[in-house]
Design brief:
DNA binding; 21% strand; alpha/beta; elongated; 10 strands; Nucleotidyltransferase, domain 5; S-adenosylmethionine-dependent methyltransferase activity; 2 domains; 12 helices; single chain; Transposase; five-stranded mixed β-sheet; SAM-dependent_MTases_sf; Rossmann fold; five-stranded parallel β-sheet
Length: 312
Protein backbone atom coordinates (compact mmCIF):
# COMPACT_ATOMS: atom_id res chain seq x y z
CA UNK A 1 0.00 0.00 0.00
CA UNK A 2 1.30 3.44 -0.92
CA UNK A 3 1.12 6.26 1.62
CA UNK A 4 1.61 10.00 1.08
CA UNK A 5 1.80 11.19 4.67
CA UNK A 6 3.41 9.52 7.68
CA UNK A 7 2.27 10.42 11.19
CA UNK A 8 4.42 9.79 14.22
CA UNK A 9 2.41 9.91 17.43
CA UNK A 10 3.94 10.20 20.89
CA UNK A 11 1.26 9.03 23.32
CA UNK A 12 1.01 10.03 26.97
CA UNK A 13 -1.78 9.95 29.53
CA UNK A 14 -2.90 13.55 28.93
CA UNK A 15 -1.63 14.51 25.47
CA UNK A 16 -0.84 13.30 21.96
CA UNK A 17 2.05 14.76 19.97
CA UNK A 18 1.62 14.40 16.19
CA UNK A 19 4.51 14.88 13.79
CA UNK A 20 3.58 14.78 10.09
CA UNK A 21 6.13 13.72 7.46
CA UNK A 22 5.97 13.64 3.69
CA UNK A 23 8.83 11.54 2.46
CA UNK A 24 11.70 12.10 4.86
CA UNK A 25 10.71 15.73 5.50
CA UNK A 26 8.82 16.76 8.65
CA UNK A 27 6.00 19.14 7.69
CA UNK A 28 4.63 20.16 11.08
CA UNK A 29 4.06 19.17 14.69
CA UNK A 30 0.91 19.55 16.78
CA UNK A 31 -0.03 18.61 20.33
CA UNK A 32 -3.63 17.83 21.32
CA UNK A 33 -5.45 16.48 24.35
CA UNK A 34 -5.63 12.69 24.53
CA UNK A 35 -9.42 12.60 24.45
CA UNK A 36 -12.23 12.37 21.91
CA UNK A 37 -12.58 16.15 21.52
CA UNK A 38 -8.88 16.78 20.93
CA UNK A 39 -8.50 13.89 18.47
CA UNK A 40 -11.64 14.80 16.51
CA UNK A 41 -10.48 18.40 16.14
CA UNK A 42 -7.03 17.26 14.97
CA UNK A 43 -8.50 15.01 12.26
CA UNK A 44 -10.72 17.89 11.11
CA UNK A 45 -7.74 20.28 10.95
CA UNK A 46 -5.66 17.65 9.18
CA UNK A 47 -8.12 17.28 6.35
CA UNK A 48 -8.21 21.03 5.88
CA UNK A 49 -4.41 21.40 5.89
CA UNK A 50 -3.41 18.43 3.71
CA UNK A 51 -6.50 18.14 1.45
CA UNK A 52 -6.05 14.39 1.52
CA UNK A 53 -7.98 11.35 2.68
CA UNK A 54 -6.97 9.28 5.69
CA UNK A 55 -6.50 6.35 3.33
CA UNK A 56 -3.29 7.99 2.11
CA UNK A 57 -1.97 8.39 5.67
CA UNK A 58 -0.11 5.99 7.94
CA UNK A 59 -0.36 6.63 11.68
CA UNK A 60 2.47 5.08 13.64
CA UNK A 61 2.73 4.98 17.45
CA UNK A 62 4.40 3.05 20.23
CA UNK A 63 2.33 0.66 22.32
CA UNK A 64 1.51 2.40 25.63
CA UNK A 65 -1.38 0.27 26.91
CA UNK A 66 -4.67 1.97 27.75
CA UNK A 67 -3.37 5.41 26.76
CA UNK A 68 -3.50 4.31 23.10
CA UNK A 69 -7.19 3.49 23.25
CA UNK A 70 -8.85 6.89 22.55
CA UNK A 71 -6.72 7.44 19.43
CA UNK A 72 -7.04 3.85 18.21
CA UNK A 73 -10.82 4.01 18.53
CA UNK A 74 -11.10 7.35 16.72
CA UNK A 75 -8.77 6.36 13.86
CA UNK A 76 -10.39 2.95 13.42
CA UNK A 77 -13.82 4.58 13.11
CA UNK A 78 -12.36 6.69 10.28
CA UNK A 79 -10.90 3.56 8.58
CA UNK A 80 -7.39 5.00 8.97
CA UNK A 81 -4.20 2.97 8.55
CA UNK A 82 -2.67 2.35 11.97
CA UNK A 83 0.69 0.87 12.88
CA UNK A 84 1.34 0.08 16.56
CA UNK A 85 4.95 -0.88 17.15
CA UNK A 86 7.07 -1.86 20.13
CA UNK A 87 9.07 1.04 21.53
CA UNK A 88 12.20 -1.10 21.61
CA UNK A 89 11.97 -1.84 17.89
CA UNK A 90 11.64 1.85 17.02
CA UNK A 91 14.60 2.64 19.28
CA UNK A 92 16.75 -0.07 17.66
CA UNK A 93 15.88 1.17 14.19
CA UNK A 94 16.62 4.85 14.83
CA UNK A 95 19.39 4.60 17.41
CA UNK A 96 20.15 6.77 20.43
CA UNK A 97 19.49 10.51 20.49
CA UNK A 98 20.74 13.14 22.89
CA UNK A 99 17.50 15.11 23.03
CA UNK A 100 14.29 13.45 24.20
CA UNK A 101 11.00 15.34 24.32
CA UNK A 102 7.48 14.42 23.26
CA UNK A 103 7.86 16.53 20.11
CA UNK A 104 11.22 14.98 19.22
CA UNK A 105 9.88 11.47 19.85
CA UNK A 106 6.89 12.11 17.58
CA UNK A 107 9.21 13.24 14.77
CA UNK A 108 11.43 10.20 15.24
CA UNK A 109 8.40 7.89 15.01
CA UNK A 110 7.19 9.65 11.84
CA UNK A 111 10.58 9.17 10.16
CA UNK A 112 10.68 5.56 11.37
CA UNK A 113 7.30 4.98 9.70
CA UNK A 114 8.53 6.44 6.40
CA UNK A 115 11.83 4.55 6.48
CA UNK A 116 10.17 1.21 7.29
CA UNK A 117 6.90 1.72 5.39
CA UNK A 118 7.29 -1.55 3.48
CA UNK A 119 7.37 -3.44 6.79
CA UNK A 120 4.28 -1.78 8.27
CA UNK A 121 1.92 -4.19 10.02
CA UNK A 122 -1.48 -2.55 10.12
CA UNK A 123 -3.31 -2.73 13.41
CA UNK A 124 -6.71 -4.42 13.68
CA UNK A 125 -8.97 -4.35 16.76
CA UNK A 126 -8.67 -7.41 19.01
CA UNK A 127 -11.59 -9.78 19.28
CA UNK A 128 -14.17 -8.78 21.88
CA UNK A 129 -13.15 -11.55 24.29
CA UNK A 130 -9.47 -10.51 24.07
CA UNK A 131 -10.37 -6.88 24.67
CA UNK A 132 -12.43 -7.90 27.70
CA UNK A 133 -9.52 -9.93 29.09
CA UNK A 134 -7.22 -6.94 28.63
CA UNK A 135 -9.64 -4.69 30.53
CA UNK A 136 -9.99 -7.22 33.35
CA UNK A 137 -6.23 -7.62 33.57
CA UNK A 138 -5.75 -3.85 33.76
CA UNK A 139 -8.50 -3.59 36.38
CA UNK A 140 -6.87 -6.32 38.43
CA UNK A 141 -3.54 -4.49 38.30
CA UNK A 142 -5.18 -1.29 39.55
CA UNK A 143 -6.94 -3.17 42.38
CA UNK A 144 -3.65 -4.78 43.43
CA UNK A 145 -2.15 -1.28 43.66
CA UNK A 146 -5.07 -0.09 45.81
CA UNK A 147 -4.72 -3.10 48.13
CA UNK A 148 -1.02 -2.38 48.49
CA UNK A 149 -1.75 1.24 49.37
CA UNK A 150 -4.41 0.25 51.92
CA UNK A 151 -2.09 -2.27 53.56
CA UNK A 152 0.75 0.23 53.97
CA UNK A 153 -0.43 1.46 57.40
CA UNK A 154 -0.34 -2.14 58.65
CA UNK A 155 3.42 -2.44 58.24
CA UNK A 156 4.86 1.06 57.84
CA UNK A 157 5.57 1.69 61.52
CA UNK A 158 7.37 -1.67 61.81
CA UNK A 159 10.12 -0.63 59.41
CA UNK A 160 13.29 1.14 60.62
CA UNK A 161 11.92 4.44 59.25
CA UNK A 162 8.55 3.69 60.84
CA UNK A 163 9.97 3.01 64.30
CA UNK A 164 11.74 6.38 64.18
CA UNK A 165 8.56 8.09 62.93
CA UNK A 166 6.41 6.58 65.70
CA UNK A 167 8.83 7.50 68.46
CA UNK A 168 9.23 11.05 67.16
CA UNK A 169 5.44 11.46 66.82
CA UNK A 170 4.89 10.21 70.38
CA UNK A 171 7.35 12.80 71.68
CA UNK A 172 5.54 15.56 69.79
CA UNK A 173 2.17 14.45 71.17
CA UNK A 174 3.56 14.12 74.71
CA UNK A 175 4.53 17.79 74.62
CA UNK A 176 0.85 18.76 74.56
CA UNK A 177 -0.63 16.12 76.87
CA UNK A 178 -2.17 17.22 80.14
CA UNK A 179 -2.99 15.12 83.18
CA UNK A 180 -5.22 12.17 82.37
CA UNK A 181 -7.96 11.73 81.57
CA UNK A 182 -8.22 13.88 78.43
CA UNK A 183 -10.84 13.30 75.73
CA UNK A 184 -8.61 12.57 72.73
CA UNK A 185 -9.97 12.03 69.20
CA UNK A 186 -7.63 10.10 66.91
CA UNK A 187 -9.21 10.80 63.49
CA UNK A 188 -7.88 8.84 60.54
CA UNK A 189 -5.82 6.81 62.99
CA UNK A 190 -4.91 3.97 60.61
CA UNK A 191 -4.54 0.84 62.74
CA UNK A 192 -4.40 2.84 65.97
CA UNK A 193 -0.85 2.72 67.35
CA UNK A 194 -1.24 6.11 69.03
CA UNK A 195 -4.75 5.41 70.32
CA UNK A 196 -3.56 2.27 72.10
CA UNK A 197 -0.64 4.13 73.65
CA UNK A 198 -2.81 7.03 74.83
CA UNK A 199 -5.44 4.70 76.29
CA UNK A 200 -2.74 2.91 78.26
CA UNK A 201 -1.76 6.30 79.69
CA UNK A 202 -5.30 6.67 81.10
CA UNK A 203 -6.91 8.98 78.52
CA UNK A 204 -10.38 8.58 76.99
CA UNK A 205 -9.63 7.85 73.34
CA UNK A 206 -12.06 8.05 70.41
CA UNK A 207 -10.42 6.16 67.56
CA UNK A 208 -11.72 6.25 63.99
CA UNK A 209 -10.60 5.56 60.44
CA UNK A 210 -12.36 5.59 57.07
CA UNK A 211 -11.12 2.07 56.18
CA UNK A 212 -13.36 -0.57 57.85
CA UNK A 213 -10.58 -3.18 57.73
CA UNK A 214 -8.28 -0.93 59.78
CA UNK A 215 -11.03 -0.35 62.34
CA UNK A 216 -11.81 -4.06 62.64
CA UNK A 217 -8.12 -4.87 63.01
CA UNK A 218 -7.74 -2.32 65.81
CA UNK A 219 -10.92 -3.55 67.49
CA UNK A 220 -9.72 -7.16 67.42
CA UNK A 221 -6.40 -6.18 69.01
CA UNK A 222 -7.44 -3.61 71.61
CA UNK A 223 -11.21 -3.26 71.74
CA UNK A 224 -11.90 -5.63 74.62
CA UNK A 225 -8.67 -5.11 76.55
CA UNK A 226 -8.83 -1.31 76.71
CA UNK A 227 -12.25 -0.12 77.94
CA UNK A 228 -11.23 3.54 77.65
CA UNK A 229 -11.37 3.42 73.84
CA UNK A 230 -14.37 4.21 71.62
CA UNK A 231 -13.94 2.72 68.12
CA UNK A 232 -15.76 3.52 64.88
CA UNK A 233 -15.63 4.07 61.13
CA UNK A 234 -15.62 7.80 60.35
CA UNK A 235 -15.01 10.05 57.36
CA UNK A 236 -12.87 12.94 58.60
CA UNK A 237 -14.72 15.26 56.21
CA UNK A 238 -18.09 14.56 57.87
CA UNK A 239 -17.80 13.35 61.45
CA UNK A 240 -20.71 12.03 63.51
CA UNK A 241 -19.34 13.41 66.81
CA UNK A 242 -21.07 16.18 68.78
CA UNK A 243 -19.78 19.77 68.89
CA UNK A 244 -17.19 20.93 71.45
CA UNK A 245 -16.23 17.51 72.84
CA UNK A 246 -12.48 17.09 72.19
CA UNK A 247 -9.63 18.19 74.44
CA UNK A 248 -7.11 17.03 71.85
CA UNK A 249 -7.48 15.96 68.21
CA UNK A 250 -4.89 13.97 66.27
CA UNK A 251 -5.05 14.34 62.50
CA UNK A 252 -2.44 12.04 61.05
CA UNK A 253 -3.67 10.47 57.82
CA UNK A 254 -6.38 12.83 56.49
CA UNK A 255 -4.15 15.86 55.91
CA UNK A 256 -1.75 13.99 53.63
CA UNK A 257 -3.91 11.22 52.17
CA UNK A 258 -6.53 13.66 50.86
CA UNK A 259 -4.95 15.29 47.81
CA UNK A 260 -7.77 17.76 47.09
CA UNK A 261 -7.41 21.06 48.98
CA UNK A 262 -11.17 21.43 49.52
CA UNK A 263 -11.28 18.01 51.19
CA UNK A 264 -8.50 19.02 53.57
CA UNK A 265 -10.34 22.24 54.42
CA UNK A 266 -13.48 20.22 55.18
CA UNK A 267 -11.42 18.02 57.53
CA UNK A 268 -10.10 21.06 59.38
CA UNK A 269 -13.58 22.59 59.59
CA UNK A 270 -14.97 19.39 61.11
CA UNK A 271 -12.08 19.19 63.56
CA UNK A 272 -12.71 22.76 64.68
CA UNK A 273 -16.40 21.95 65.17
CA UNK A 274 -15.80 19.10 67.63
CA UNK A 275 -12.89 20.81 69.40
CA UNK A 276 -13.50 22.45 72.76
CA UNK A 277 -12.73 26.15 73.06
CA UNK A 278 -9.72 25.21 75.20
CA UNK A 279 -8.84 22.21 73.03
CA UNK A 280 -5.85 21.60 70.80
CA UNK A 281 -5.54 20.22 67.28
CA UNK A 282 -2.35 18.39 66.26
CA UNK A 283 -2.24 18.08 62.47
CA UNK A 284 0.51 16.13 60.72
CA UNK A 285 1.51 16.62 57.10
CA UNK A 286 4.14 15.24 54.76
CA UNK A 287 6.47 17.26 52.55
CA UNK A 288 5.68 17.12 48.82
CA UNK A 289 9.23 15.82 48.37
CA UNK A 290 8.80 12.90 50.79
CA UNK A 291 7.72 10.50 48.03
CA UNK A 292 10.77 11.32 45.94
CA UNK A 293 13.12 11.03 48.91
CA UNK A 294 11.65 7.64 49.80
CA UNK A 295 11.88 6.47 46.18
CA UNK A 296 15.56 7.43 46.01
CA UNK A 297 16.43 5.78 49.32
CA UNK A 298 14.41 2.58 48.81
CA UNK A 299 15.06 1.86 45.14
CA UNK A 300 11.43 2.55 44.16
CA UNK A 301 12.79 5.26 41.85
CA UNK A 302 13.19 2.47 39.28
CA UNK A 303 9.60 1.22 39.74
CA UNK A 304 7.14 2.79 37.28
CA UNK A 305 4.16 1.57 39.32
CA UNK A 306 5.34 3.63 42.30
CA UNK A 307 5.18 6.87 40.31
CA UNK A 308 1.77 6.00 38.83
CA UNK A 309 0.11 5.44 42.23
CA UNK A 310 -1.53 8.84 42.15
CA UNK A 311 -3.51 7.73 39.09
CA UNK A 312 -5.15 4.92 41.10
Amino acid sequence: MQFTYFFGVDVSKATLDFAVAKGNQILFHQQVANDKKGITQFIKDLRQQTKTSLGQCLFCMEFTGIYNNPLLKALHQQSANIWVERAAHIQESIGLTRVKTDQVDAKRIALFAYKNRDEARLWTPPRAVIAQLDRLTAQRARLVKVIKILQTPLTRLKSPYGILEEEHTRRLISTYLQAAPMDIYDIGGGTGPYSAWLAEAGHHVYFSDIVPHHVELFKSRYGSSKPGISIGVEDARQLSYEDNVADLILLNGPLYHLIDRQDRLRVLTEAKRILKDTGLLLGFSISRFAGLIYALSSGEVFNNDYFEMEAV
